[in-house]
Amino acid sequence: MDLFFNPFDNLLCVLLGISFTVWFTLLLVFIIVPAIFGVSFGIRRIYMKTLLKIFEWATLRIERGAKEKNHPLYKPYSNAIIAKEPTSLEEEIKEIRRSGSNKDLGSTPEFEMSDIFYFARRGVESIMDDEVTKRFSAEELESWNLLTRSNNNFQYISLRLTVLWGLGVLIRYGFLLPLRVTLAFTGVGLLVFLTSVVGLLPNGRMKSFLSEKVHLMCYRICVRALTAIITYHDSENKPKNGGICVANHTSPIDVIILASDGCYAMVGQIHGGLMGVIQRSMVKACPHVWFERSEVKDRHLVAKRLSDHIQDKSKLPILIFPEGTCINNTSVMMFKKGSFEIGATVYPVAIKYDPRFGDAFWNSSKFGMVNYLLRMMSSWAIVCSVWYLPPMSREEGEDAVQFANRVKAAIARQGGLVDLLWDGGLKRAKVKDTFKEEQQKLYSKMLVGTQEDRSRS
Amino acid sequence: MGSRASTLLREEEIEEIKKETGFSHSQITRLYSRFTSLDKGENGALSREDFQRIPELAINPLGDRIINAFFPDGEDQVNFRGFMRTLAHFRPVEDNEKNKNVSNTEPLNSRTNKLHFAFQLYDLDRDDKISRDELLQVLRMMVGVNISDEQLGSIADRTIQEADANGDGCISFTEFMKVLEKVDVEQKMSIRFLH
């Protein structure tokens, strides 16, 4: 019995040992070492191009399948479903009245029963398609990217396509996911360990230099853990010390994407658990701005700490996401004015994800953080473009809100996103009554204003 | 697995809705996608809260009245058929439809039915007439706090005086239609689809 099992066991052990060694060497050579030095072999770009070709083929097959069955295909359109005229309340109601008026042209009616048509139509238009609620769920894709989570034309998938999809699942969950999880653990582990080590050094040039290198290296490993293929544009505008970097927010990954190309001081609330451990060790190496939960509500305290930080020119630029919540990367929503009141130079950054490879949007009401990360790591890749926009400062006679809107418009324009005035907080909160009151005031002016004219004449 | 696959509309249902409302195949699938995205509870029906979550509707002074139009008496859930039936009122009237006479019943987007939708926005208790009280309440919703009770009262009185043909102090649907006979209802109460 012994003789039978031993050589087999030995062989198994040897094989396992060899494959582990090969695995780790490959990992080290192709992923970790380039991450440390910030170079790239270009493997990810080739991967990206191959995937695109496969997706196009898959979409053609689905279209063919639908045509055979003589059914129209469901084609999602990211633009509007219905035609909305940009006319104002006054113009429209006047038009309605004009078309139905059987009075002389001289007298202006104060109220007509047909006025209600305006409100009815606007209301039903917003039920069919509104600008806000669709920003809080994932964008719909035009071609299929072999992920079940993003398919609406399920019944048209042929056998060949199913096989391809099955292969995709195998590759994604069997090969890519374990690889990425390993890298993620390595990256995070190294971050915690090395920043603690650097934190032991006395404050000075050496410490900042090392801290920078350590942060960059670990973030680069995390970038590879997500297979993120990032294109940085206009790097000459990269944020400098004493400034505030402002970007549109789609997911927590935004932080990793920006921080792997430059060093920033993070701002945020101190969490418990693993997040807290990471935060506490990061702050040992270089000053980040972490707030206790109780301090977050105190706007003056927050503003003071931020302005203290930026006044110290040796400290890194602050990274802030003024939307306050994750939006689905088709639009930019209202920027909270807090960061624009401090008076620092603002460096806007636009981040646009390519949704074909994996949707990076974190729908926090649907998925928790761990679930989200798993979804990210089992997508094909995260492809995005980052634009560093030229710095902006508050101008004479401009208040914080106007400045914020100006920055927001610049970011939206660069990223090809829709610029909205709505508050991202509407994801969870109800809209304020003041907007309704504005509409009521406008309409009242139409009714009462005409009475004033009458009394004057 | 995505939940979308299991809640896809069946072809027979799409055909039925097409016949009833006149929407095209692609319009129905698109509106179904909209319906499911509004249905946060994922139970195949919308409640009033689901509608109120739409910010642009919440700031509409008559938002609650419009939401109410989707819920026939007493119920507090509307399924996709009901949703489409109400939206069908706002389908534009195509020229070739005026000649067609496919079924005996009037299409949902006829001029009369569009006017009826507007009438029901005023008629709070659904007794087929608009009383002075109801008109006042709806006016109050539209103007908020910006006009005094007296002024609003006189506006209401004037409106009823002009419309009330049989002198009962209320506006019936026939009287309502007469007042609005010259208004281009087909255009003002229609929403055009882009495809």
- Distance, first to last CA of chain A: 116 Å
- Kindly report how far apart the N and C termini of chain B lie: 30 Å
Shape summary of chain A: flat
Tally of distinct domains of chain B? 2
Biggest interface: A-B, 67 and 64 residues
Shape of chain B: globular
Largest sheet of chain A: 7 strands, mixed
CATH superfamily of the largest domain in chain B: EF-hand
CATH architecture of the largest domain in chain B: Orthogonal Bundle
Strand order of the largest sheet of chain A: 1-8-7-2-5-3-4
Structure in a nutshell:
Chain B: It holds the Pfam family EF-hand_7. The complex is a heterodimer of chains A (457) and B (195). With 457 residues, chain A is an alpha/beta fold.
3D structure, described in words:
The complex is a heterodimer of chains A (457) and B (195). Chain A contains 13 helices and nine strands. In chain A, α8 (273-285) links the parallel β3 and β4 (289-291). Chain A has helices at 2-37, 43-68, 89-100, 116-128, 159-199, 205-225, 253-259, 273-285, 293-296, 299-311, 369-377, 400-415, 433-456; strands at residues 228-233, 244-247, 265-269, 289-291, 318-320, 331-332, 346-354, 382-388, 418-419. Chain A has a domain at 159-427: 3-Layer(aba) Sandwich (Glycerol-3-phosphate (1)-acyltransferase), CATH 3.40.1130. In chain A, strands 1-8-7-2-5-3-4 form a seven-stranded mixed β-sheet, sandwiched between helices. A two-stranded parallel ribbon of chain A has the order 6-9. The radius of gyration of chain B is 19 Å and the shape is globular. Chain B is built from 13 helices and four strands. Chain B is mainly α and 195 residues long. Classes of the chains: A alpha/beta (457), B mainly alpha (195). Chain A: This is Glycerol-3-phosphate acyltransferase 4. Chain A: Keywords: Acyltransferase, Lipid biosynthesis, Lipid metabolism, Membrane, Phospholipid biosynthesis, Phospholipid metabolism, Transferase, Transmembrane, Transmembrane helix.
